[in-house]
Structure to design on (115 residues):
């Protein structure tokens, strides 16, 4: 029964993607199907910790993941958190400090050139 319940709980996961070409990208991060970054959500007061992987020295701290701010230009690595280049990435633990029913998780990225 637990296996069935777990499988059923994943049935509701949906992925939405918004994209702007480089000439249309801007610091407003507005999309038709994705809300803009928030300065007041469940993650605002959360505790973030690296569980596996190494923080890239060129990037910002883990606080960049939940401060509600976004880069103002396409190439501002210090305004973003990312794992060290040339690695397999990593894992982050997020402790919201309380029980929260999650509706969605949003991530944002802005890069110069195409990726």
């Amino acid at each position: 029964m637990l296996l069935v319940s777990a499988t059923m709980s994943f049935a509701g996961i949906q992925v939405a993607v918004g994209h702007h070409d480089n000439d249309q990208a801007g610091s407003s991060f507005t999309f038709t199907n994705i809300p803009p970054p928030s300065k007041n959500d469940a993650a605002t007061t959360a505790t973030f910790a690296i569980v596996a992987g190494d923080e890239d020295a060129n990037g910002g701290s883990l606080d960049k993941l939940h401060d509600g701010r976004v880069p103002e230009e396409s190439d501002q690595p210090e305004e973003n958190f990312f794992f060290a280049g040339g690695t397999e990435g990593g894992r982050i633990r997020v402790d919201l400090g309380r029980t929260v029913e999650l509706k969605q998780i949003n991530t944002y990225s802005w890069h110069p050139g195409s990726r």
User: Anything to note?
Assistant: The radius of gyration is 16 Å. Residues 27 and 54 are 27 Å apart (CA to CA). The longest strand covers residues 47-52. DSSP finds one helix and two strands in the chain.
